[in-house]
Amino acid sequence: MDEGEEEGEVLAADTSQLSLHLDTLIGHIEDIILGDEFFKLREGFLHDHCQLFEDQEENKLEYMEVYQEYLQVIEGHLESELERRAPELQISTLLQTLSSSSSSSSGCEGEVFELLLTLSDFSAFKRDMLEMKKSEENDTTQLTDLLQVTSLK
């Protein structure tokens, strides 16, 4: 066997392993993000800080401070949950795989990535804060409070 062929096989095996690693990480992240604990953490943070925000184009310096705290809370939760669920997996591998796949034709797409991007987008964060503030001011109920399970029997 040619030395170039061996290197190609090793590279393919490494790429395959990274892909498997990425799929596993994405599965765990999806489970975390869709879980009740994450929902309560995020909603609680929005509830606790929404009164500071105003529906104006200009942003106050305090918004960025709250946003930075929000990122720390969300990222900290994701990291600790990933560590608890799969200590053998490394976030650095995810970042490495994402950076290498963004230059490839496959790219990373999907709801998990969209949600992660939304969680780290200041405009989306401010919009969520304003929506929470509006719902509290209007004393509206949460959608989850409106859901009711009824037996059809």
From TrEMBL:
<dbReference type="GO" id="GO:0005929">
    <property type="term" value="C:cilium"/>
</dbReference>
<comment type="similarity">
    <text>Belongs to the ARL2BP family.</text>
</comment>
<keyword id="KW-0963">Cytoplasm</keyword>
<keyword id="KW-0966">Cell projection</keyword>
<dbReference type="GO" id="GO:0005758">
    <property type="term" value="C:mitochondrial intermembrane space"/>
</dbReference>
<dbReference type="GO" id="GO:0005634">
    <property type="term" value="C:nucleus"/>
</dbReference>
<dbReference type="Pfam" id="PF11527">
    <property type="entry name" value="ARL2_Bind_BART"/>
</dbReference>
<comment type="function">
    <text>Plays a role as an effector of the ADP-ribosylation factor-like protein 2, ARL2.</text>
</comment>
<dbReference type="GO" id="GO:0051457">
    <property type="term" value="P:maintenance of protein location in nucleus"/>
</dbReference>
<keyword id="KW-0496">Mitochondrion</keyword>
<protein>
    <recommendedName>
        <fullName>ADP-ribosylation factor-like protein 2-binding protein</fullName>
    </recommendedName>
</protein>
<feature type="domain" description="BART">
    <location>
        <begin position="23"/>
        <end position="137"/>
    </location>
</feature>
<dbReference type="GO" id="GO:0005813">
    <property type="term" value="C:centrosome"/>
</dbReference>
<keyword id="KW-0206">Cytoskeleton</keyword>
<dbReference type="InterPro" id="IPR038849">
    <property type="entry name" value="ARL2BP"/>
</dbReference>
<keyword id="KW-0539">Nucleus</keyword>
<dbReference type="InterPro" id="IPR042541">
    <property type="entry name" value="BART_sf"/>
</dbReference>
<dbReference type="InterPro" id="IPR023379">
    <property type="entry name" value="BART_dom"/>
</dbReference>
<keyword id="KW-0969">Cilium</keyword>
